[in-house]
Every structure is written in structure tokens, then in C-alpha cells.
Amino acid sequence: MTTEPIGSRSPGTAPRSTLDGALRLLDYWTTAYRRTWRGSAVSSFVVPLLYVLAMGVLLGGFVEADPATLEGATGYLAFVVPGMVAAQSMTTVFGEVTYPVMGMVKWHKTYYAMTAGPLAVPHVVLAHLGFVAFRVAVTAAVFLAVVAPFGVHESWWGVLLALPAQVLIGLAFAAPIYAFSAGLKDESAFALVFRLGMIPLFLFSGAFFPVANLDQPLEALAVLTPLWHGVDLTRMLTLGTLEAGPALVHVAYLGGLVVLGWWWALRRLERRMVV
Amino acid sequence: MTLSEPGSMIHAADLRKSFGGFEAVRGIDVDVRPGEAFGFLGPNGAGKSSTMRMVAAVSPVSGGTLRILGMDPATDGPAIRARIGVCPQEDTLDTELTVWENLFVYGRYFGLPKAEVREKVEELLEFVQLTDKAKAMVDDLSGGMKRRLTIARSLVNSPELLLLDEPTTGLDPQARHVVWDRLFRLKQQGVTLVLTTHYMDEAEQLTDRLVVMDKGLIVAEGSPLALIAEHSTREVAELRFPVAAEGGTHEPLAESVADLAERVEVLPDRLLLYTHDGEETMAKVHERGLEPIATLVRRSTLEDVFLRLTGRTLVD
């Protein structure tokens, strides 16, 4: 039994910046990730293979499209792979910022422990979104690597740039959905978010077929969705058909969503926790 | 009082907290001095937890003045929270991490270097007698162990001021005594303790000075002994009767013994006779032919002070 004075060492300090505060949460996230990464590791290798085999090779075998309609791809497989990469960046995010956010704010109160010390809501949000960005980057990198042997990447520098593009796509979804989850009192709304939000986006945002196939006004609606911007950006990069104008529009659109989502997330979580 | 006493750990003047139209704290004045153990005693809903959340710099003040370690929580919240320790009423431990990991990641929130946190974690595990549980998952700990771990976690930044909200609520008597023992040691080391409780024995055991809160206001302030001396008598003779019938009370019984005590409190199942000599009073009660089903002579406690001040019992 110790009789050493407990109050003998340094006290804590207030973080110097939002980034400094978020970095103090790095050990939490790496410790938590070390306990769960094995489960996600297998699926991040197997899922891309299953998708590419089913949609790209087997279903794609029936697709006899004129390459002129495939947005620059030489075949359906090369067309669908970047679409699936972008779509996966979105679905990964839906999993990371719905139930887990509610768990940390409502069920396990992890956020309350994190903000009992010198950290505050902006640090918590930045660290959580940083972790989501990391998860998106890892799953996208694995996907792009696993499909490389199929010869679907036309541009190597484009593939390298597609990785930060996935992080941008991921954050464009993560920040607003995080904000939604952070203020939510009850988890039953998540089922609707998945069924009426994620699945229609996944199916109709140009990942599996050119949005030009849709009748107006559905095509106009499809090109307004964030996932279409992500799909088109990713496709231009992996096919080496990058055009500066449209690419800038995609980046600005997705970046705008990140900024708006960030602002909304801080507001929602502060209203929930600082009472 | 608007000026802070020099060196106050906590200074509150006319402190208020409202939630919408409901005023949970209705203007309280408190000064906590360095090194003392200070208590907020009161029933559930008295405003203790709302006060503690404001003092912990996580809940904005609705009115009045609040200074913690001389700083204003409205502008210096992070700096205040960096130097205090908080042991919340609900355990917010991370159940997916081990005991050791819970302390380590928490220490890192304070901006302390890894090596220093590691050393501190070992020291704290020993202090709360959980060294052999370092690798256990939090879910496998008993309630008392979880509470000790939460206390250890609140000490990771070597705080000058430790806030404990209901530190032993829900613990069995043995686990409570272990927690009390640890808190005594912290007090001996000079840590200022501020705790809320609705247990009078906890307040008597742990605090040098306390305030009694009721409905968002402070109704009395002083040391446990001084409060008892001021608001109660030395002894209490308790006469237990069958619970009064619906609509009836034990008032008529109380009137028949009113002259035997300084004061008589009437509860649904008993009379409390406040007197300097309980045995003597009890003898006189028996002479009058009253036949209670049980009797007890005891010393006055804070429970009696609370009953006197508010007309209600602390724990229903």
C-alpha cells in the first residue's frame, strides 16, 4: 500500500489548438482500433474481390456496351471498379458515423469522459472524423490494390490521387451524417438513413451504370448527389481521363459538404453535451 | 458576498442554473478553501449535481459568479479542467478497454508525455489496489472496483481539486469503506475534496464542512458537528408505531408527549423526540402508558438536521 503523495507530478494543460487537442485522442483511437481491426481486415480484402467477380466479371460479361458510352472506360470492368471504390468509401462511412457515434455520446458516454478534462467538443469531433478518414483510406487502398491485377487501372498517378479523393468523398459524407447522429436521441432513425439514404445513393449515383442511362429529371437528380461527384472524380482518376474543370467542381462540391458538415456537427454535439 | 476569499479553490456567489423554465440552482454562495473536504448534502433533485457540473466547467453558468482555482469557467474552461479531477456519478469508463488502457488513454487527454503517464498509471493502480487487475477488462470488475478505477482516473493529472459526485452511491458497505479510506488518504496529501452525497454518514465521515441543499438553495452551512449542535439536540428518542392509517397521522400521540422533548417530529411510522437525555425521556414515555412497537435512543445525525430544516427525510 503506497503512501507516496499522489499530487506530485505535472498537472494537465489546455490544448494549444484544435489539432493539438485532437492528437491527444490518438492513443484512444489506436488502442480501440487494435482491438477491432482484425475483424475488418479480412472483409476489406474479401469484399472487393466478391464485388469485382460478381458485378465486374460475371455480370459485366453480359454487358455489351459501346465503349463510347462508358465514360472513357475500355470495358465494363474498368468502368465499374472506380464506381465501386467510391461507393465503398461512402458505405464505410455510414457504418462508422451512425451507431458508433450514438454509442459514444449516449450508451457508453465515452465523449463525456473525453471532455471532462481539458478537451472539448471540437477536439472530439476532429479526432473521430480523423479516424473515419483513416478507415476510408485503408479500405480504399486495399480495394485499389486487390483489383489492380485485373488490369483496370489506366493511370498510375491517377490511382495514387484516387486515394486522397476517397478520403475527401468519405469526409463529405462523414461530417454531415456525424452531425445528424450526434444530435439524435433514438437510434431507430438509422434504419431509415441506411434504407432511404445509403442504398438509393449506392444504386443510382452512377457507380454501376452511366447516369445518362436515367431519364430526365432523374439524371439531373443523380448528378446532384455527392456520390455521383465522388464516382465521377474517382473514375476520371483511375481511367486517366481527368479534366480540370469538372474535377474542380467535384472537389469544391465535396469540400463544401465537409465544411458545412463540420460546422453542423460542432453545433449539434455542443447543444447535446454542453447544457 | 461578491469578493473571492483569497486562495479559494471554488468561489460561487449567487450562482444559478436553469434548464428552460426550471431553475435547478437558485442562487447559492459557496467558498471552498484549499485542503478542506467540502460536501454538498441533499436529497435527489436538490441541485447538487447541477452545481457540480458547473464547478467541473462542463455546464455553463446561468447566473451569478463562479471562479474555480481563481479562473472563470466561461473563458478558461479547458485550463480549469486540466487542473481538476472529476469522478462522475455514472461510470464513464470504456468497457472495450482494459483497466490499464482506461487510465493510460485518459492521461494522454491532459497532454502529459507517454512515459510520465505510464509511471503515473502504475502508481495509481497501486493506490486504488487494482494492480493485479491491470489487464482485466472493465466489464469484469465489481461495482466497487469500477468506482475505484474512476477515482484513479480522476487523479491521473495530479489535480489540486477533486470533485466527486455521489462517490459511493450503489456500493455495498464494504466497498464504501474502501473508497472512504482512499479519499481520506488523498485528503491527508492535501488534495481539496468536494463531494455530493445524500448519505448523512458519508458526509459526517468525510467532510470538514458542508452545505445542506434543498430545492436549489443552501439551507444551512457548517461542520457536521456544528450543524448538529445548532439545529438538533444531543440525543433522539425514536418511538416506532404501526404505520398510520390512510388519512390519519400520529399527531395525537405526538401531542401527548410534546412536553417531554424540545421538539417532536412526526413521521408516518414513528415519532422522533429531540432531547438532551434520550434514556430519561424514554422512561417518561413509558410512565405515560404509551406502547410503541420498538424504541431506540441514539445521537443526533445530519439526517435530523435535514429533517429539521426541510421537514423531509434525505433518503426516501
TrEMBL record, chain A:
Molecular function (GO) terms for this protein are: ABC-type transporter activity
Q: What is this protein called?
A: Unannotated protein
* One Pfam family from the record: ABC2_membrane
Q: Which GO terms describe its cellular component?
A: ATP-binding cassette (ABC) transporter complex
Where the record annotates domain ABC-2 type transporter transmembrane, the positions are: 32-236
Keyword line: Membrane, Transmembrane, Transmembrane helix
**Mind giving the lineage of the organism this protein is from?**
unclassified sequences, metagenomes, ecological metagenomes
- What PANTHER family does its record include? NODULATION PROTEIN J
Membrane topology category: Multi-pass membrane protein
Where does it reside?
A: Membrane
Q: Provide the transmembrane region boundaries.
A: 41-63, 75-99, 120-150, 156-180, 192-212, 247-266
Automatic annotation (TrEMBL), chain B:
One term of GO molecular function: ATP hydrolysis activity
Q: Which SMART domains match?
A: AAA (SM00382)
Principal location class: membrane
Asked whether the keyword Translocase is assigned, the reply is yes
Q: Key word Translocase present in the record?
A: yes
Matching entries from PANTHER family are given as: ABC TRANSPORTER ATP-BINDING PROTEIN (PTHR42711), ABC TRANSPORTER ATP-BINDING PROTEIN NATA (PTHR42711:SF5)
Give a GO cellular-component term: plasma membrane
Name the coiled-coil region(s). none
The record, for SUPFAM superfamilies, names: P-loop containing nucleoside triphosphate hydrolases
Location in the cell reads:
Cell membrane
- Which family does the record claim for this protein? Belongs to the ABC transporter superfamily.
Q: What is this protein called?
A: Unannotated protein
Which residue numbers delimit the ABC transporter domain?
Answer: 10-240
User: Which UniProt keywords are given for this protein, alphabetically ordered?
Assistant: ATP-binding, Cell membrane, Membrane, Nucleotide-binding, Translocase, Transport
InterPro entries linked to this entry? AAA+_ATPase, ABC_transporter-like_ATP-bd, ABC_transporter-like_CS, ABC_transporter_ATP-binding, P-loop_NTPase
